[in-house]
TrEMBL record:
One of the record's GO molecular function terms: UTP:glucose-1-phosphate uridylyltransferase activity
Keywords: Nucleotidyltransferase, Transferase
Tagged with keyword Cell membrane: no
UniProt EC number: 2.7.7.9
Top-level division of the source organism's lineage: Eukaryota
Annotated residues for binding of UTP: 130, 193, 222, 253, 392
InterPro entries found in the cross-reference section: Nucleotide-diphossugar_trans, UDPGP_fam, UDPGP_trans
Catalysed reaction, written as an equation: alpha-D-glucose 1-phosphate + UTP + H(+) = UDP-alpha-D-glucose + diphosphate
Protein name: UTP--glucose-1-phosphate uridylyltransferase
PANTHER family, A to Z: PTHR43511
Native organism: Postia placenta MAD-698-R-SB12
Amino acid sequence: MPSDSLMPRSESFNARVRGASHIDFKTATTGVAAKAMRNEISNLVKSVQDPDTKRAFDIEMQSFFFLFTRYLSERARSQELDWEKIRSPEEDKIVPYAKLPTGDAKNLNKLAVLKVNGGLGTSMGMTGAKSALEVKDDMTFLDLTVRQIEHLNTTSRVDVPLILMTSFNTHEDTLRIIKKYANQQLRITTFNQSRYPRIYKETLLPCPKAADDDKKHWYPPGHGDLYNALYQSGVLDQLLAEGKEYLFVSNSDNLGAVVDERILQHMIDSQAEFIMEVTDKTKADVKGGTLIDYEGQIRLLEVAQVTSEHVEDFKSVRKFKIFNTNNLWINLRALKQIMESSEMELEIIVNPKTTDDGQAVIQLETAAGAAIKHFRNAHGVNVPRSRFLPVKSCSDLLLIKSDIYSLEHGQLVINENRMFETTPVIKLGDHFKKIAQFQKRFKKIPKIIELDHLTVTGDVYFGRNVTLRGTVIIVANEGQSIHIPDGCILENRLLSGNLNMIEL
């Protein structure tokens, strides 16, 4: 029964007060929480001695406080998207890659490339910067990116700089790694994204008590922080001063995100200030953010913004056919204008976490693609799947390391002997979750050029020069193990139980 039906019907004094006080209470609690947070933040700022560090930290905390107050007021208004108003974008808002013009290499002099390099490979059991992981031919994500851009600069005789946005988790690692590129045909700039305090869920107060408190009390606020960090660090002005007009942004673990002259040309021709590369959804991508039309405006919708009753709808490939690859093309002058008029308000994603001692905390984050609504002529380009090759798990890593791909100038190229356009589906179980286990269980990466599907669960080890074809399913039961011997060929096989495989 709706609560308003309990109200007196007459426009009595009682009814008016009761209606207003509910809102006032919410606004009041918002005010109290904001005030308490402001006090805590000013204490954090006071804890910094050095004047320059203090100034920078103060600016960072003001940005955090702005995000926090937006979170409070949205929560008070319980602002949720109206599901009924969500439409698929108009056809002209998603341009097929095949329709793009051929590019002109001269445009590349106006381009800079930025890699979001703040991630730790924690889900894969890593402790350092994920981009330092060796993925192919003894080369890391960063090596491959550097190789690609060097090749671009030397063959097209242009000067495309590489910019790395690190987080406080990966900054030291990254600086150490890029020392080895000092003599290359490439300029590398690094800047650090923001470091925000985690918030206790119960009290809405910050976890850290001082600016130099343990790392675990802080978090990098997602890749949506890119714009603020680029602006505050001075890197945006530096790029504009060098005559750069466009920025190509992608995640450092997406090996498909190479510079594409056709997309750049299309951006210039269509005078779009922002382009998001999207690609067709498969069953593996049901959680990827998607572009929608909301009240006539193009917007990014992330799964974290969807209420539980609509999540299945969101994941359906029928309703939302594409998803965001996080390869973004941005007009730098337009970005500076938006930042200077402080209009960059991105949807807040609340990321709940639990601390080591079991306390519930929240992280307020934003997504870079959400900025699409702030730019003129912004739209999506539907790109081939080959531009989205992220390595999020050891299953992805197996595919990249295998003979399905070879490297050309740091770029992954599908082996021409592969009969199908698609890559095999690979599902490795929990025993392969961490990098160290993965490396121990594969003496050498199997040959999978003719593989369609591989599922491995349980305690399984692969010898050298193993070939997998068709559909291969290997299941070692609880307490048992399977060792696949050197030189073994498995084609359309299901193995289970406890085998040393001599029986085949």
